[in-house]
Amino acid sequence: MRIIYLTKHKGRMKKQLTPLFALLILTGILSSYRNTTEGDKIKIGLEIGNQAPELIFMDPNEHPIKLSSLKGKMVLIDFWASWCPPCRRENPNLVESYMLYKDRKFQNGTGFTIYSVSLDKSKNGWMSAIDQDKLSWEYHVSELKGWNSQAAETYGVHAIPANFLIDGNGIIVARDLRGSFLIQKLQNLAI
């Protein structure tokens, strides 16, 4: 019986439901706004849209560098090693990207930098590769444990080169950008 009533009085019901739907939509929007502004945490993980897991590792001078200390910048977390030929071939692309975007503004961040995580075991090999490949950014870290790296385990890295691009809030916006794809992504995110 109710279906017949709704069909026969469609025009009148539509007028009655419109304010109701508007109220439901507005309530949903406000609820969503409240949830994001009241500090609901974004999931920490390795997928695009997740908060990148924290990393705190030693630089070549044995000073700790926290990934979170780079908040406000667009950051490429780059996993590599001096003994890795594909990594070394990729380094010129990283240098070019860094030089082009280090001072640029982005939709969610100012400046671009690289947090290089080396899977080397030899400090000499690591330092030599940084110098030879002209990796001029300041954020180089390594545990000097090779594949036993806690950073690689945290990020699920089983092959290198591997990377994660995070925005100024530490949210992963892309993964495994190589060659011109990194520059294209940075160009798309730049203001």
Radius of gyration (Å): 24 Å
**Which of globular, elongated, flat, extended, rod-shaped describes the shape?**
globular
Strand order of the largest sheet: 7-6-3-8-9
Under CATH at level 1, the class of the largest domain stands as: Alpha Beta
The run of helices and strands is: HHEEEHEEEHEHEEH
Write down the oligomeric state. single chain
| Total discrete domains | 2
Give a quick account of the main beta sheet: strands, pairing sense, barrel closure.
5 strands, mixed
Structural class: alpha/beta
Mean pLDDT: 85
Percent strand equals 15-25%
User: How many individual β-strands?
Assistant: 9
- CATH T-level topology of the largest domain: Glutaredoxin
CATH superfamily of the largest domain: Glutaredoxin
Tally of contiguous helical segments: 6
Note the gap between the termini: 58 Å
CATH architecture of the largest domain: 3-Layer(aba) Sandwich
Low-pLDDT parts are 1-11, 13-38
Helix content: 40-55%
Question: How would you concisely characterize the structure shown here?
Answer:
This protein has 191 residues and is α/β, with parallel strands linked by helices.
